[in-house]
Each structure stands twice: as structure tokens, then as C-alpha cells.
Amino acid sequence: MQLDLEFVRQQFSQLNDNPEIVFASNAGGSLVCNQVNDLMDHYNRHTRVQPYSRFTPSQEAGQAMDRAKQAWADALNISLSELTMGPSTSMNTYVMAQAIGATWNEGDEIIVTNQDHEANSGSWRRKALEKGVTIKQWAVDKETGLLDPNQLFALLSSKTRWVFFTHCSNIVGTENPVADITKQIKAQSNAKVFVDAVAHAPHHIADLKQLGVDAYTFSLYKVFGPHQSILYVSQIVHAELKSQAHYFNSGHPEYDFNPAGPQHAQVAACAGVIDYFDALHQHHFGETSVSQSQKMADIHPLIQAHENDLSQPILSYLDNHSQVHLIGKTHIEDNDRAPTIAFKPLKQSSASLAASLQKAGIGTENGNFYAHRLITDLGFDADDGVVRISLLHYDRAQDVEKIILELDKALG
Ligand SMILES: Cc1ncc(COP(=O)(O)O)c(C=O)c1O
What separation in Å is there between the alpha carbon of 94 and the centre of ligand 1? Predict the structure, then answer.
């Protein structure tokens, strides 16, 4: 079975605005599906009052928020008390650094990578410095940007408290095998595992119990939704951490790690992303009673096959071009390569190449994408950075053709 791309594209009304535009900066933020826009519009027009009171619009507002939270907990195969909806992933990691960092003592160790976006690096590093905790870095290969799990295992010790890494870098684009890595970490140490899935979730909503991680976070504005972030903290870890909420809200799982307070309309509209995935599932598999997380597993191969088809010609083109340093895996092998393709042009700046593509109607970008440490370690200028072409499953083969044509003109 193949992904019905026409059906997919009908769910994103912005694609109709200008069909000539190639949406290739999705790792910065995805388009929003119609289901989300409809819920947001409905909330703001009809239920925009303080939620959870007993009068009608307020009850409806609370129910809409509850529906979204339950739908996301089900999709991730976690319990409601393990889910926080925060304002952004950067805020989630900042707040969690206060909660987790409070349990650290001088002489403890943490492991971070230089492959991560700064959101999953800086907060932990700062907190570790404050507490006299040793920071060990799981370093990337300086040519490819890839991480070797064996190098991580060699860093583990009896003092390792947490390991922080990414499910998929927003630049390298290769999926780190989270379940295997986590299993090994747990077999060899008492360390806990925190994973940033911002660049992975747009391609697949994972079953978190299967991954076995202790905490996991990603941003819904990159997964067809509103500007919200999902944070999973396992029940066991949650119980070990101090609440970061107002003292009188402490002990309410959904507030413990979200001192910002919920953004009501956005939270309610998060259900629209699941409604979109449901529609996708129903369209391809018919009416079924499988669990929400099983639906995610069912649609994943369809999305992945289409995304692989999009990536492969661009990867091949760039890999064979002598004036380009392609980052990450150069081809699709084990279904672990997201269509997030970054490269450094060798004969011109990334900014000038990105500008040429943009002029041709290709929405792409250049820069460090807040993975400043990675870009620096790869030996590139951190401001000019790399050019990133990041696709999602609503992109088309004709978009890829246009990208390669314009790349060819711009690279010469
Ligand atoms: C891999 C990765 N992690 C974390 C973040 C930060 O997410 P947020 O903007 O929700 O703070 C981003 C944003 O681009 C990202 O790409």
C-alpha cells in the first residue's frame, strides 16, 4: 500500500495558496493541518473563556483540552499523568533541568552530545556546572556528524546520572537507535535517559514504552500542530523529582513540570494532529478499533516509504557533487534517514546558495539551526552554517525534481 498523497495534501489548505512553492524548511516548522486550524478556530470563536467551570462554554473548553491530552497520551502509549504540555521544548528542558538538576550532587556525571540542538544541551550543561557535576561529551564524527553508540557506552560509569541525546539531529538527519541505546545504557549503568525527539516526531510518533526512555520531548509546531511541546516523564522519575509548579499546584502531574500554565486554545487544538493521523489511518486502513499508538505504527511505513523516495534522489545528487560536503548518511539504508538533508557548499557561502534556492521558490534555509556546537565541530562557520532541505510527507516528487534542478543551477 502506498501513501495517498492527494488525500494528504487535501488536509493542508496552505498547500493550495501557491502550488508552485516547495516547502523544504519543515524542520523549522511544519504546515498546520486543517483539523488543527478548525479546532483552534472553534475554541477561539466559541469557548474562549476560563476552562473547567460549570457553565457551558467553559465546560466545553475543558473537555476540548482533556480530549487533546488523552489523545496524545494514547498515541504515545503513556498514561495521562506522564504527559505535560509545555510552551516549547526549550522551556521543557529548562524546567526539567531545574527539577532533575536538584537531584545531582558534586562528583556525579552526565553525558550530553554535540549533535543536539542547544535545547537538549545548554540547560543540562549549565545546571551541571552549577552543581559540580562532571559533563562528558558523546562526540560526533567530525566529517559526517554521526554518533557511534559504542563511544557512548565507553563513557558510562557508576557515577553517570543521566544521558541526554537526540532521537534524530535537526541537521544530521539520521535516527539514533533510541531503544537499543537505552537498553544498553540501562544494562551497563543506573543512568536515566532523556531524549529530544523534535526532529524525529514529524516523521513518526513513537511508542514510548517500547523505547524504554525515562523522558522524551518534542514540539508540535513541527508535527502539523500548534506552538506547543509534549513532554513525557515516566511515573517513576516523576515521583523522584520536585514539582516546579506553584506550591499549591504541586502534586498535580500536569502542572509539576509546566510552571508557565497551559495555553488553553493551543492545548485543545493539539487534538487536531491526532484527528489528522486518524483520518490518514481510516483512509488507508478503513474503520478499525486498533489503539491510537497502533494507528501510529500502521501509518509509519507509508509515510516512511514516501519520505525515503523524496530523500534518495537529493542525497544521491549531493553525494555525487564534488562541490558539496553532505552531512550524515549519504543514502537510505535501514529506514533510519529522515528527509532532513544538510550540506555545506564548498565554493560559495551557505547563505548565497540558500538565497538562490529561495529566489526560485524553494523554501529552504541556511544557518546553524541552534545546533551551534555541531556546526562548529564539523568545522563550519557557525553563522553561515549549512543549507538545510527538510521535507515532510506532504512534499511531492515534483518538488524534489525542482530542488535538484535549482541546486544544479546554483551549484554550477
Ligand atoms: C532538534 C530540536 N530540538 C529542540 C528544538 C527546540 O524546540 P522549541 O522551539 O520548541 O524550543 C528544536 C527547534 O528547532 C529542534 O530542531
Answer: 12
Q: How far apart are CA 16 and CA 12, in angstroms?
A: 8
The whole-number average pLDDT for the span 131-159 is 98
Cα 179 from Cα 273, distance rounded (Å): 25
Superfamily of domain 5-31+293-411: Aspartate Aminotransferase, domain 1 (3.90.1150.10)
Give the CATH fold of the 39-273 domain: Aspartate Aminotransferase; domain 2 (3.40.640)
Contact yes or no for 172/146 (Cβ under 8 A)? yes
Cα separation of 48 and 375, whole Å? 43
How far does the centroid of ligand 1 lie from the alpha carbon of residue 196, in Å? 8
Are 140 and 152 in contact, with CB atoms under 8 Å apart? no
Residue 114 Cβ < 6 Å to ligand 1? no
Q: Hey, where are the domains in the chain? A: 5-31+293-411, 39-273
CA distance 200 to 208: 13
Cell of 296: 501510529
The number of CA neighbours under 13 Å toward the Cβ of 263 is 14
Atom of ligand 1 nearest to the CA of 87: 10
CB of residue 117 inside a 6 A radius of ligand 1: yes
Determine if ligand 1 sits within 6 Å of the CB of residue 89: yes
Closest CA to 338 of 370, 300, 298: 300
Give residue-wise pLDDT tens across range 224-238. Answer: 999 999 999 999 999
Q: Tell me the pLDDT tens digit for each residue of 271-284.
A: 999 999 999 999 99
CB of 113 sitting under 6 A from ligand 1: no
- Do 195 and 166 form a contact (C-beta atoms < 8 A)? yes
Is the whole-model pTM more than 0.90? yes
Q: Is the CB of 365 under 6 A from ligand 1?
A: no
**Lowest-confidence pick of 15-19, 118-122, 151-155, 318-322:** 15-19
